[in-house]
Design brief:
This protein is α/β, with parallel strands linked by helices. The chain contains 19 helices and 17 strands. The structure holds adenosine-5'-diphosphate and alpha-D-glucopyranose (GLC).
Length: about 475
């Protein structure tokens, strides 16, 4: 269960995971159905067919669930027009603020999921329910309130910074009983915590990299839930995300100007020229850096702003695609006005352009303050755009820094910096620019990065094992 699923509806990496993990699980013999809300973009897929389940009144209006097969996925789509038929961002209203009824919208998703978990749908009942992020966190709380036998649940945390906290006055409206509203349950400093409920009541908790699983136990990263997670340490596992190797394949990617492979890299040059032209940059002797990111505090891009003069001094260029906080959008717009032929900025969300940047830039910068897994560095590896990453979370788990020992051992795939400060980033960017001048080492690193395994195989097997263990335990 999740609130996003690529390619149907996406605001970030969660969608990529939900769109690709089920296919990888299928290869290990797990049959997956994904329960999603029916946002406007999805409603044209369900058409006028008969629903598999109806609710006369699901938190304020009629609702139904349709079972459909699209993009090689089996979906269960929760149609509830009073909750999901809204244009624009799936979480935010036109004023840029959270929809005021987000608690109802996502409680309804969990409530419907709990109904399926208990009673099944059209002759099918899940053996396991894997929940993703706060939008699905109430499901185990609803199951805890039920007297019937229920399948085991897994709460997967993609980002603990988003917890789904709502006013406790909503408890009764959300059909939650007071027994679950305790410090060891759904209560978080007087509020209802959707993610907290999920962590407290699920049978197992996973997150999206081993290092983030450890970081979450500390107050610095746990964001108030570290205590509960320490209490559940034995049930907490970090499994690194994979990527969809078909959607993200430089040999076939339709969004590239030229396709290429690890054996024939020439196409990268044409992609690079296309990026340079599109962003209005000049050719230069230094590397072309990419950023593809939400512009939020998490992503640490304010640190990069401080490094721009040094980048320009190295004859490097930067092409940034992103959107988010106004001060960061303005900061990068200012940088591009100041250095118009070195810094190119596109504010917005553009899936095809994100592929082109990975297919033609020399390096991709991900300076996050925290990063549960991160997918952009994995796309960078797959496309030979060497990742320059902060030493945190999944970034630290997936990129091998080009220090002397790693270069000598022929295993470096990118660059890491620590601490996560502008100074350390600056020094690392200078290091990258220097190494870039050694064409032989750089070309070798590209090939090694492209060969680095970033698919789902191992991780899907790890999910499979958790599912099997839970089933045998229950
Ligand atoms: P997060 O989920 O925290 O945003 P991830 O690295 O896991 O971070 O995933 C980000 C995903 O969103 C990647 O698929 C990335 O390519 C995509 N993305 C982020 N910003 C943009 C943008 N402005 N345009 C297109 N794709 C974007
Ligand atoms: C979250 C995290 C990101 C992770 C993604 C998918 O959005 O911020 O690090 O890659 O979820 O798990």
């Amino acid at each position: 269960m999740a609130s996003e699923c690529a390619p149907l509806v996406k605001t970030g990496g969660l969608a990529d995971v939900i769109g690709s993990l089920p296919k990888a699980l299928a290869k290990t013999g797990v049959r997956v159905r994904v329960l999603l809300p029916e946002y406007p973009d999805i409603s044209n897929l369900t058409g006028s067919r008969e629903p598999a389940l109806r609710f006369e009144n699901l938190f304020g209006g009629p609702a139904a669930i349709h079972a459909i097969h699209v993009h090689d996925m089996n979906l269960l789509v929760l149609s509830a027009p009073h909750l999901y038929r809204r244009e624009g961002n799936i979480y935010l209203g036109p004023d840029g603020q959270d929809w005021p009824d987000n608690h109802t919208r996502f409680a309804a998703l969990s409530y419907a999921g709990a109904e399926i978990a208990q009673s099944g749908i059209a002759g099918w009942k899940p053996d396991i329910v894997n929940l993703h992020d706060w939008q699905t966190g109430l499901l185990p709380a609803y199951l805890a309130q039920s007297a019937t036998s229920v399948p085991p649940t897994i709460m997967t945390i993609h980002n603990i910074a988003y917890q789904g906290l709502f006013d406790s006055g909503q408890l009764a409206n959300l059909q939650l009983r007071s027994e679950i509203f305790t410090a060891s349950g759904a209560e978080f400093y007087g509020k209802i915590g959707f993610l907290k409920a999920g962590i407290a009541f699920a049978d197992t908790v996973t997150t999206v990299s081993p290092r983030y699983a450890k970081e979450l136990l500390n107050p610095e990263f746990g964001m108030g839930l570290d205590g509960l997670l320490r209490a559940r340490q034995d049930d907490l596992v970090g499994i690194v995300n994979g990527i969809d190797l078909d959607t993200w394949n430089p040999e076939t990617d339709p969004h590239l100007v030229a396709n290429y492979s690890v054996r024939a890299l020439k196409g990268r040059q044409l992609n690079k020229q296309a990026i340079i032209a599109r962003f209005g940059l000049r050719p230069g002797t230094g590397p072309l850096f990419a950023v593809v990111s939400r512009l939020t505090q998490q992503k640490g891009l304010d640190l990069l702003l401080d490094c721009i003069p040094a980048l320009v001094a190295q004859d490097a260029r930067l092409a940034l695609l992103g959107s988010g906080d106004a001060d960061l959008e303005n900061g990068f717009a200012r940088a591009s006005r100041r250095y118009p032929d070195s810094v190119g900025v596109m504010i917005g969300y553009d899936e095809p352009l994100s592929h082109l940047l990975q297919g033609g830039c020399d390096a991709v910068i991900v300076p996050s303050r925290f990063e549960p897994c991160g997918l952009t560095q994995l796309y960078g590896l797959r496309y030979g755009t060497l990742p320059v990453v902060a030493q945190t979370g999944g970034l630290a788990d997936t990129v091998i820094d080009a220090n002397e020992a790693a270069l000598a051992a022929n295993c470096a795939t990118g660059f890491q910096f620590a601490p996560v400060t502008a100074d350390a980033l600056n020094q690392t960017l200078v290091r990258v620019c220097k190494l870039y001048q050694n064409r032989q080492i750089w070309a070798r690193m590209i090939r090694r990065a492209m060969r680095h395994p970033v698919g789902w195989d191992q991780s899907a097997t790890a999910y499979h094992k958790i599912y099997s263990d839970l089933i045998s335990r229950s």
